[in-house]
UniProtKB/TrEMBL annotation:
Belongs to the GAMAD family. It holds the Pfam family Robl_LC7. This is Roadblock/LC7 domain-containing protein, putative. Residues 12-51 form the Roadblock/LAMTOR2 domain. It comes from the Eukaryota. InterPro entries: Roadblock/LAMTOR2_dom.
Length: 54
């Protein structure tokens, strides 16, 4: 799993570049806890969005 973090970062960067209308993202684990969010989103905002999803 040593390269998996870089792979995730690259996929997210590529996805954002290919989808200019997307303004951010939140990645949640199976418990609905945010484990990653876009740089433009605050931690509090990502928690709010995660709560809306679960």
């Amino acid at each position: 799993m040593s390269g998996s973090q870089n792979e995730v970062d690259e996929v997210l960067r590529s996805w954002l570049a290919n989808n200019p209308s997307v303004v951010g993202y939140v990645v949640v684990n199976s418990d609905g806890i945010p484990i990653r969010h876009h740089d433009k989103l605050s931690r509090e905002r990502s928690l709010h969005y995660a709560a809306q999803l679960t």
